[in-house]
Amino acid sequence: MSDLSPCGALVAALLSITLCAFYVTHLWKFDRFRCLNFMRDRQGAFKRFMTYSYPVGVLTVAIFWVGSAVIKYKEGFVTLSNGTVLPKPFELWTPQNLGARFPLIMLNAVAWGAEAYVELALFAKELCFWFFLIHAGPSPTPWFRSIYFKIWLGGSVLAVALTFVTTIVTRADPVKNEVWQMFVGSVTGLLITIGFLPVLWVFPNFVRKVKEEGADVDAVVRLVKFHDLNARSIIRIVFRFMFVVPGVLFSIEGFNPNTHIINEGIWISDLLLAISSIGLVVQSSITLMARTTYVALSCINILPRFSSPETSNWRPHDGSMDPQLSGGE
Fold first, then answer.
1. How far apart are the C-alpha atoms of 241 and 194, rounded to whole Å?
2. 3-class DSSP state of 238
3. Which of 38, 56, 197, 205 has the maximal Cβ count within 10 Å?
4. What one-character-per-residue DSSP string does 1-18 give?
């Protein structure tokens, strides 16, 4: 944060507010906020956490950047002896603003954790679940006992916990605190994005297989629509890389304080921050729309019967194998 200019922080704040506005508008047009009703239907703990983690992440990232922009404008710049003008470093901040930094960085940890959980719960879980279905034989192992479910569950816990642990452990050093949080959050997002790439390759064959096995037309149409939204146009993947790659670059350079390539000029840092913020807004908006489509899949059978009931334990997918697709969970 100390290397960013006030203008860069302001751009990130305005874009995050734009994301909040889109989220509110989308939910209002979708069902007048009824999906946020805590007592709605028979939601289980998993689905409740999934429902509220997204707005929490959107809100906390907006608060973080608005607070950061206010502090950056209060602190301003400092002129070095050689005439170079730089944003004021942490060491020269007033005690009041320096004290406000850690609560903001913790809010950012919540935002990173919520973003990771949404991606892991919606898309990484989808990744594991599609692989589970694609590689399932006539008598598949139940989803909750499969290696794919265990990989997803372990990865989810680790990804969400790491952000908070590193933020708390490194809190004594503001620079190290910021670098480690950005590194863990960005690398986690990058790994999730790279891990989703195989779906782009195998998903079309999976859709064809579902169609050939006699799935409901509505199911095929929705699967194709979901694939188009996430894969065929490649829009979401591109913007996810735009979101996470600048953070990885910032954090790697932060581990080498004596080497400055990205932070050599203020405009480079601000440009990368703007790219990352635009990537966050666009990919989060697509994620929100994709989640709406994903919820709609819970009302239909995605897979047909692969074999007769007498010869196989396989049955049409009705949500009983996956709590996220089940209307009662």
1. 9
2. helix
3. 56
4. -TTS-HHHHHHHHHHHHH
Distance, in Å, from the CA atom of 301 to the CA atom of 320, rounded to the nearest integer, reads 11
pTM above 0.70, yes or no: yes
User: Token digits for 143?
Assistant: 């989803």
Render 201-229 in DSSP notation, one character per residue.
Answer: HHHHHHHHHHHHTT--HHHHHHHHHHHII
Burial code of 65-93, b = ≥16 C-beta within 10 A, e = fewer? bbbbbbbbeebeeeeeeeeeeebbebeeb
pLDDT tens-digit readout, 63-91: 999 999 999 999 998 888 887 788 888 88
Residue-level length of the chain: 329
Inter-residue contact 314 to 321 (CB < 8 Å): no
State the number of CA atoms in the 13 A half-sphere of 26 facing the CB.
17
Residue-wise pLDDT tens digits, 21-76: 998 898 888 777 777 776 665 555 556 666 777 888 889 999 999 999 999 999 99
SS3 call for 319? coil
Q: Are 327 and 35 in contact (CB under 8 A)?
A: no
Which tokens belong to 199? 């779906």
Q: Any long-range contacts for 190-196 (C-beta under 8 Å, 24+ apart)?
A: 190/241, 190/244, 190/245, 190/248, 192/116, 192/119, 192/120, 192/123, 192/124, 192/159, 193/237, 193/240, 193/241, 193/244, 195/124, 195/127, 196/123, 196/124, 196/127, 196/237
Question: H helices then E strands: how many in the chain?
Answer: 9, 2
